[in-house]
TrEMBL record:
The chain crosses the membrane at residues 20-37, 42-65, 71-90, 110-129, 149-169, 176-193. Coiled coil: none annotated. Pfam families: HupE_UreJ_2. It comes from the Bacteria. This is HupE/UreJ protein.
Length: 207
């Protein structure tokens, strides 16, 4: 097996690993207001997230930028919580003959920005795998592609589930969104308070 293939599998396993479910939660939070019939919107949204985390994954792995891993591990569940919380106030766009030009969807730049944070998290894992390896181009490409394939599978599975519940079982989109976003928000809060960086942050602020 080549280095590219090995790191592809590592990237795929990392994004789909149930033990490291923070990235999965974020993808679910991004997608919870949509169903499978709105895949085009989801594709644009996930692409924005992909661009963001690909940028910082490359920059951090190449040691061009560096942020404390503990801080990143705190920021990731915060991005999950903020995304889930925003879902509670989401209102589907209403077509109007008067307003012909649609409003800019704020979720796209937000997904891009939060992707930058998640990319730092991916890079911490990848750098630990690379160690002192000299040639990191192919490992970086393989790992990133593995992430994307795994991410796409998560999106398809999640949207298929929402399609069954909303389009077939006739659960309202609002109910589905509130339930899944509430669960995600609760899990994100738990991750935030489990983070080891949080106590030191409060101690610094108190001093």
């Amino acid at each position: 097996m080549s280095d590219f293939q090995a790191y592809f599998l590592l990237g795929f396993e990392h994004i789909t690993d149930a033990n490291g479910y923070d990235h999965i939660l974020f993808i679910m939070a991004l997608c919870s207001i949509y169903t499978l019939v709105e895949f085009k919107k989801v594709f644009i949204l996930v692409t924005a997230f992909t661009i963001g985390h690909s940028i910082t994954l490359a920059l951090a792995t190449l040691n061009i930028v560096s942020i404390a891993p503990d801080l990143i591990e705190l920021l990731i569940p915060i991005t999950i919580l903020m995304t889930a919380f925003a879902n509670f106030f989401y209102k589907p766009p209403v077509f109007s003959f008067i307003q012909k030009s649609p409003k800019v969807n704020y979720r796209y730049p937000v997904a891009l920005g939060f992707g930058l944070i998640h990319g730092m998290g991916f890079s911490n894992y990848l750098r630990a795998l690379l160690g002192g390896e000299a040639d990191i181009v192919y490992p970086l490409l393989g790992f990133n592609l593995g992430l994307e394939i795994g991410q796409l599978i998560i999106v398809v599975v999640f949207l298929s589930l929402s399609f069954v519940l909303v389009e077939i079982l006739r659960v309202t989109k609002l109910t589905w969104n509130l339930i899944i976003s509430g669960i995600i928000a609760g899990m994100a809060i738990s991750l935030i308070f489990q983070n080891e960086y949080l106590p030191s942050l409060f101690n610094t602020a108190a001093n």
